[in-house]
Amino acid sequence: MIPEEIRKIKEQTGRYFVGKDVIIENVLCCFLAGGHVLLEDVPGVGKTTLARTFADCLGLSFGRIQFTPDTMPSDVTGLTVYDMKTGEFSYRPGSVMKNIILADELNRTSPKTQSALLEAMAETQVTVDGNIYPLPEPFMVIATQNPVSFTGTYPLPEAQLDRFMMRLSIGYPSSEEELRLARNHMEGVQSERPAAVLDISGLSAYKAAVNRVYVSDGILSYIQQIINATRTGSSFSLGASPRAMLHLLQASRAKAFLSGSEYVRPDDVKNLVIPVLSHRLMLTTEMRLQRKEAADLLEDIVLKTRLPIE
What we know:
- This protein has 2 domains: 4-191, P-loop containing nucleotide triphosphate hydrolases (Rossmann fold, 3-Layer(aba) Sandwich); 212-304, Helicase, Ruva Protein, domain 3 (Orthogonal Bundle), CATH 1.10.8.80.
- The protein is built from 15 helices and 11 strands.
- The chain has helices spanning 4-16, 21-32, 47-58, 73-77, 111-114, 116-123, 158-161, 175-187, 200-211, 217-232, 242-258, 266-270, 273-277, 285-289, 294-304; strands spanning 37-40, 62-66, 78-83, 88-93, 100-104, 125-128, 131-134, 140-145, 166-168, 236-238, 282-283.
- A hairpin with a 4-residue loop joins strand 3 (78-83) and strand 4.
- Helix 1 runs antiparallel to helix 3.
- It starts with a helix and ends in a 6-residue tail after the last helix.
């Protein structure tokens, strides 16, 4: 049975963010699984609204970093400053010291600044002048990038892409959704702030529940076969990493929890293969010349992978 609070979070987020319900569920799934999300889409489809509304519904602090070519690593992590009154150095927190961070247009900033997020995303901490500062728990990065205009951008390296549990694309709304968006705008809905549905203790309880979702040996083998197929086939020059397998496993557990199941089913895995794996893979030259997409090749892998019997 789906918890009532989870239903309210999805319903309330959907009131302010007009888009596909599966996007809201996947972002929530990623959060409960302890991962980070990369939203890759054209401007104006509600990426910022989704991130802010999601944080409000969860009752968490929200920070936004607008990345530009002159953004410095210290803008992200914070810096040590000298206090002339006390004669001591003190740490001034950076923008990353929030529960949910919107890293807006991450590919617009330099690789040096991009890498400032790596430690935060992987270890939930930042190191400034040799001192380690833990980030607030829970912590999640929702990064965005525009896949259309590449002028003045710095493509994210594979090491950073691999730290995102999912890459999602919102897409344009349907005619009905766009009309609802217009009505919400005229009624002033977008200017409102949603009320928090959960507190920190409630979120911690749900995260713990995700870790209790049962995964059979058959499902584990099924996930590993999909991962291995990206490494051994002739379609990819770079296959999925061990981290990718762990992300797919944990996301599948969160997906099962959100559907009210106590165990992971094959469909939970199949529905997440593309958002979890597609951004981590590099196609061979032959596949690129044939204008193949990673998502299409992953669909073929899923179709060819034998389903677990149990």
